Amino acid sequence: MGDWSVDVDEEKNRLYLTLKGHLSAEAAEQAADAVIDASARLDPGFDEVNDMSEFEPAASEAMEEIERGKRGIVENGVEAVCRVVAESTTGQMQFDRAGEGAEEYALAKAESVEEAERLLDQRRQDA
């Protein structure tokens, strides 16, 4: 069974998405809706920390929803995403492939949420 959460830090203009376990198509749809809604509340140029350190491969229907969520953040103006890498390399590769080629934002990978935040903060300072 999978779980997910979406949080927003409006001061940092940052979206936080956590994906855990094996997401059903219904859970992935709910997560995609929440990500799209949350990203619409942020200013264009926002960034995202995607903690998928406990994400496991999902059904193809769920991956279609994840792809929809990726398109949604692009439409709402995401500038950079840092993914906290999954223990499941299969899950990580599956997530990477969802919407492959449609990612119009800077992408980095980190080993912890703290490292992801540092990378995104540093990127903003360097801009």
- Specify the CATH homologous superfamily: STAS domain
Unreliable spans: none
Our measurement of the CA-to-CA distance between the termini, rounded to an integer number of angstroms, reads 40 Å
Strand content: 25-35%
Question: Number of helical runs?
Answer: 4
Oligomer: single chain
Q: According to CATH, what is the topology? A: Transcription Regulator spoIIAA
Known CATH architecture: 2-Layer Sandwich
Shape: globular
Tally of strands = 5
Order of helices and strands: EEHEHEHEH
Largest sheet data? 5 strands, mixed
Q: Quick check: average pLDDT?
A: 87
What do you see in this structure?
The chain is an alpha/beta fold and 127 residues long. It has one domain: 2-Layer Sandwich (Transcription Regulator spoIIAA), CATH 3.30.750.24. It is 43% helix and 27% strand. It has a five-stranded mixed sheet, sandwiched between helices. The radius of gyration is 13 Å and the shape is globular. 33% of the residues are buried.
Task: Please give the structural blueprint.
Layout: E1 3-9, E2 14-21, H1 25-40, E3 47-55, H2 60-75, E4 80-84, H3 89-97, E5 106-110, H4 113-126
Parallel strand pairs: 2-3, 3-4, 4-5
Antiparallel strand pairs: 1-2
Keyphrases for this structure?
single chain, 127 residues, alpha/beta, Transcription Regulator spoIIAA, five-stranded mixed β-sheet, 4 helices, 5 strands, globular
Summarize the structure.
The protein is α/β, with parallel strands linked by helices and 127 residues long. Helix content is 43%, strand content 27%.
